Amino acid sequence: MVERFFLALDYETTKDAHTHGSSTLFGLCTRYGPKFVDRYFGVKINEDLLMGAIDPDLKRFKTIFADKKISHGADTGSRILKRLAEDLGPRYVTVSANLGHSILRKYVEEARKYGMDIIAWTVHTKTSPEDAQKMYKRPLNDVILNLAEMAWGAGCHAVVLEAGMLEDERIRELPIKKLVTGIRIDPSDKGSQKRVSSLEEVAKMKEAINYAVISSRYLEDIEATTQIVEALKPREV
């Protein structure tokens, strides 16, 4: 069941990110009420907006998912997490599952000091299945499964994947939370991504999905954003 939606603030400037994120959250509050929005919504901020000095305006968002995609060793990672905690205060941070069990475990332990959870990202959605096969020498499903198992064993909070991966019972049944990205109302609207999740696929698998990222391409269209929310929100709401 979807526990939280993240608005992807994939903009070139923090001013645009704050403006569009705030506007969409206001529109959702008008539609669903502030209690619903506080409980079920957060924002995803990409790494490029977190380079250098972090704009204090970003701290105004209540629940922040820092999509840093960290792939450094634990020592460097510790400094990155400390800085993020001090300058932004995110609830979630992405770290590469490819770092392996031992390093991921250190990230998990360090993040807990700051009240943060680690979300493991697996194979980038801009990587085609064919390229993934060449890189890992295994089918994409097997790669995602292995990385998700490693993330779970290391104590990571969740793993990033697209909805189609959840068709694989082995992945779906793993006791780690699942974060689905690349959601498209029209799946042909891929942009530069090689693998996306159609809204139909996501809705079909919503009982196995814990977090859903709503693309920035929908944030300026409150009806499109609402369409995604209506398809995925918990039944009791």
In brief:
The protein is 41% helix and 19% strand.
Give a verbal description of the structure:
With 237 residues, the protein is α/β, with parallel strands linked by helices. The protein has a single domain, classed as TIM Barrel, CATH 3.20.20. The protein is built from nine helices and ten strands. It has helices spanning 14-32, 34-40, 74-87, 101-113, 129-136, 140-153, 169-172, 199-204, 222-232, and strands at 4-8, 41-46, 64-70, 92-96, 117-121, 158-161, 177-180, 183-184, 197-198, 211-214. The strands form two sheets. It has an eight-stranded parallel barrel, surrounded by six helices. Strands 8-9 form a two-stranded parallel sheet. The termini are close together.
Could you outline the blueprint of secondary structure elements for this entry?
Blueprint: E1 4-8, H1 14-32, H2 34-40, E2 41-46, E3 64-70, H3 74-87, E4 92-96, H4 101-113, E5 117-121, H5 129-136, H6 140-153, E6 158-161, H7 169-172, E7 177-180, E8 183-184, E9 197-198, H8 199-204, E10 211-214, H9 222-232
Parallel strand pairs: 1-2, 1-10, 2-3, 3-4, 4-5, 5-6, 6-7, 7-10, 8-9
Query: Into which percentage range does the β-strand content fall?
Result: 15-25%
Number of strands: 10
CATH domain class name: Alpha Beta
CATH structural fold name: TIM Barrel
Distance between the termini: 12 Å
Query: What's the helix-strand series?
Result: EHHEEHEHEHHEHEEEHEH
Question: Average pLDDT value?
Answer: 90
The rounded Rg comes to: 17 Å
- CATH homologous superfamily identity: Aldolase class I
Examine the secondary-structure arrangement and name the CATH architecture.
Answer: Alpha-Beta Barrel
* Overall domain count: 1
- Morphology call: globular
Largest sheet: 8 strands, parallel, barrel
Helix content percent band:
40-55%
Sheet/helix structural class: alpha/beta
Across the major sheet, the strand order is 1-2-3-4-5-6-7-10
Query: What is the count of helical runs?
Result: 9
Low-confidence stretches: none
